[in-house]
């Protein structure tokens, strides 16, 4: 190939964030595109410093790239560990063999473990574009995965990343399927369980579209951005932790699939089971409690859906050697009072400290879940767990353990005080009959949650509250006056976020 | 909403070509993103000068966008008719109701015309991202569309764009399903049919991944970039034309679907039927001949596949009021000699001029197809068409008509002469037993086809040729010495593009 110029370009950082889609940007008149026959939307194998991935080609018609330069989306940039000026080598992406298995699934065939394993491996290696992932998810949806396939998919997802080993026989965990706003039970549950002596190394997520994830809320009270080594030290010392899962590479396939599922608004049973259980198995859990709120506006709408899903979760867990128990709960309305990291942190500390003003619904839910988890322990009889959990909470052991965990994670922090607040009052007397969760969450986000910890909404009148005209309904909290204005501006255009009915009518 | 700054930004052209995916680029620290809660990969409704579309959000972390600015991908830019500095208004994209129908299809339900119509309408309006289109295509693949659904989908695609009316009862057309390299029969067929007096307003495509499309080849001989008015004038005068279909907006849904199908390498029966027939019906055809090459490396691999597909094509055509006939042909090897626009133009002119050196396989195929099309005419008896076609070709009427069509389209052009050529010789004696179509097409593309008209490959030794050592196998043609070098450089690293077997063995 002596006559042929090597297809090498220099990297320039344009800083374009496409989320998790690797994209390569090249000039339309680039000699490499011409020579190699690269066309817009082609899939290219991109190599930088010996690392490779597959990226989709976007062309640049303007001068934002100089001749001889190419750019990468931020995700591709960080995956390849690229630096400004690095040499970049390009070729047509090799054909992806496992896409044949996806086509086979589309045509209604059953896939074996090897085929599902190859698909998951190629997805994690970045060989699938979003278009391919969407096709795979669609082909598996609509109950088109049988029980064996769900088990094989779950196993493949576990094997796609690291797997933790805690060196203990009983390692418990919990997960909530389709969470409710304010349902921040996890830190309370971990404190109770760890105080009892069971091992509960909890990794949680940050918010993606909600005003707070458990990791965002917990970060108000202690550092959560721990590496695996520090996490281990915390768990060895205190039996439990509540850290952000993002720094531990467990079930990386799941993150890639969930992002496309979200865009499709498609959450099939098989994918849901594989997603939840692969994370738990990879995290080294032996026993998992699944909290499943059921309600007309919740993710799981009927008891029948809950039963089918429970059966899949329990059977798949059993096939992969872990014990799974599903607890259905009321999913008809939000939990607690605060929406936003600091406000939710305040609520959960208030429960742990047994304050009389603590939100009782949050407390009851945490006790139910902790009770079920305690019953995973061979020493705890069925039906005794909740009473034990109540004892651990009431006598202060849970609060003490929570403080110890926070110290071990890097130090308990004070909850920051709100800076700019505005009380929203009832414009008439009556009874609160409904709260629009979606829109109240939007107000919290417009006010700055979750990136501003203090931002959010504090609900003063849950459903059922009888109120007078002028009585506070909720308070908007923000970091800056400008953000408070944004949130209030939104409120001005909205009616009935909190519905009040005449007392006679209610 | 008096307190709330309006979410307006100024447009800046970054010139990023994402093919047909609308993307909006905003700064990560943009006050509008913050205020509205826009996150990377969100779907936004973008409004410029009163026109709107839905785009996917990419964030910019660097300084390529100034504060207060936003950018659009080239596709979104041209669809919105945007200009530098225009004001751009943004909001969350409204939820797309028809995605519920896609989910319904995923769960195995049959969709009615209204539902399929709503899906196609939303796709054309730009409300579906590639992820959504991929899901729709996957849900319909694997024989999951029944005959009624195929008819409804085809009708919806016809109605998604303009529909031509030629004011004549008999309007014929042809289409090749899964073309073969060099199979450039269309201009010959149109010339014969138009010379006979039937109306054949042919729109063709440019190459997407091949070294030449019919429009690229025809452009060597005459202008093909005609608007609808000029096209009508040509057809009224000469009964036929061969123009580029890109300037006429027929079945725009098809272009959007095909692009994702290509990425998925998924071509389901239902989509294929809807794609082919929607274009033909929208183009105003009453009678369509489908050329279907069948062979082990062709798109249609078995006669059984060909029969199933033929039935769907004929039934769907009948349901929508057009007459469809399928002609299966040999799909085992390439057709003609030249690969690349000018070389293919030379071949087809040579056939039209009845030159003795004209490629006989191309001539025979064109006569077969023209014969079948002539039989659509009430005045032509079954079995007589081919003989009539031969007469029209042999007595020079076809060549005369072709010249007249070229003149009407803007003037017959001389075929440009090759500038830089290199003959590739056989390194041993024997018989040519196979030609790798994929790799020989790659050589033609590396040499510059189709954008350089003269570039391509001229085959001198079709399968079955007995050759001596040193005898020419093929010639590479290029516009510049550099491009010739690229193509030759590629050849150096390749073995067996043309397989030669010992005469004894062959």
Walkthrough of the structure:
The structure is a homodimer of 506-residue chains. In chain A, 40% of the residues lie in helices and 20% in strands. The first copy, chain A, is of the alpha/beta class. Chain A folds into four domains: 8-92, Barwin-like endoglucanases (Beta Barrel), CATH 2.40.40.20; 96-162 and 249-275, Transferase, Pyrimidine Nucleoside Phosphorylase, Chain A, domain 3; 172-247 and 283-409, 3-Layer(aba) Sandwich (Pyrimidine Nucleoside Phosphorylase, Chain A, domain 2); 420-501, Aldehyde Oxidoreductase, domain 3, CATH 3.90.1170. Chain A has a six-stranded mixed barrel with strand order 1-6-3-5-4-7. Chain A has a four-stranded antiparallel sheet with strand order 13-16-18-14. In chain A, strands 8-11-12 form a three-stranded parallel sheet, sandwiched between helices. In chain A, helix 12 (303-319) links the parallel strand 11 and strand 12 (323-330). The radius of gyration of chain A is 25 Å and the shape is globular. The model of chain A is unreliable at 1-5 (pLDDT under 50). At the A-B interface, strand 2, helix 1, strand 5, helix 3 and helix 5 of A face strand 2, helix 1, strand 5, helix 3 and helix 5 of B.
């Amino acid at each position: 190939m002596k006559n042929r110029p090597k297809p090498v370009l220099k990297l320039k950082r344009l800083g374009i964030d496409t989320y998790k889609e690797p994209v390569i940007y090249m000039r339309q008149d680039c000699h490499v595109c011409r020579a190699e026959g690269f066309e817009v939307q082609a899939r290219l194998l991109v190599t930088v410093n010996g690392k490779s991935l597959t990226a989709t080609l976007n062309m640049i018609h303007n001068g934002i790239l100089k001749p001889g330069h190419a750019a990468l989306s931020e995700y591709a940039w960080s995956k390849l560990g690229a630096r400004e000026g690095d040499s970049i080598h390009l070729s047509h992406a090799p054909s992806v063999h496992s896409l044949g298995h996806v086509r086979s699934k589309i045509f209604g065939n059953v896939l074996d473990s090897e085929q599902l394993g190859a698909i998951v491996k190629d997805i994690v290696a970045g060989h699938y574009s979003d278009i391919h992932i969407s096709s795979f998810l669609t082909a598996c949806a609509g109950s088109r995965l049988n029980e064996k396939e769900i088990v094989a998919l779950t196993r493949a997802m576990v094997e796609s990343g690291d797997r933790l080993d805690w060196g203990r026989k009983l390692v418990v965990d919990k997960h909530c399927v389709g969470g409710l706003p304010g349902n921040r039970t996890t830190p309370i549950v971990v404190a109770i369980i760890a105080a009892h002596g069971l091992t509960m190394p909890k990794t949680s997520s940050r918010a993606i579209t909600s005003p707070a994830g458990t990791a965002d809320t917990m970060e108000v009270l202690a550092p959560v951005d721990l590496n695996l080594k520090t996490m281990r030290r915390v768990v060895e010392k205190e039996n439990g932790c509540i850290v952000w899962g993002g720094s531990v590479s467990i079930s990386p396939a799941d993150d890639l699939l969930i992002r496309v599922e979200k865009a499709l608004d498609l959450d099939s049973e098989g994918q849901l089971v594989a997603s939840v259980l692969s994370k738990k198995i990879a995290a080294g859990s032996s026993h998992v409690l699944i909290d499943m709120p059921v309600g007309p506006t919740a993710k799981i709408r009927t008891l029948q859906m809950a039963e089918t899903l429970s059966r899949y979760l329990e059977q798949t867990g059993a096939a992969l050697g872990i014990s799974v128990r599903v607890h259905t709960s009321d999913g008809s309305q939000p939990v607690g009072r605060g929406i936003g990291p600091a406000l939710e942190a305040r609520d959960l500390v208030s429960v742990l400290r047994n304050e009389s003003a603590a939100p009782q619904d949050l407390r009851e839910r945490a006790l139910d879940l902790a009770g079920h988890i305690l019953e995973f322990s061979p020493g705890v009889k069925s039906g005794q767990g909740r009473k034990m959990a109540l004892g651990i909470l009431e006598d202060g052991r849970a609060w003490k353990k929570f403080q110890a965990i926070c110290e071990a994670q890097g130090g308990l922090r004070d909850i920051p005080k709100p800076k700019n607040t505005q009380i929203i009052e009832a414009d008439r007397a009556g009874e609160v009959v409904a709260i629009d969760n979606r829109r109240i969450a939007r107000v919290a986000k417009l006010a700055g949650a979750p990136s501003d910890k203090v931002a959010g909404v504090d609900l003063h009148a849950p459903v059922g509250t009888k109120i007078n005209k002028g009585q506070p309904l909720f308070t908007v909290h923000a970091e800056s006056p400008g953000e408070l204005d944004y949130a209030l501006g939104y409120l001005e255009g909205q009616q009935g976020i909190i519905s009040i009915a005449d007392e006679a009518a209610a």
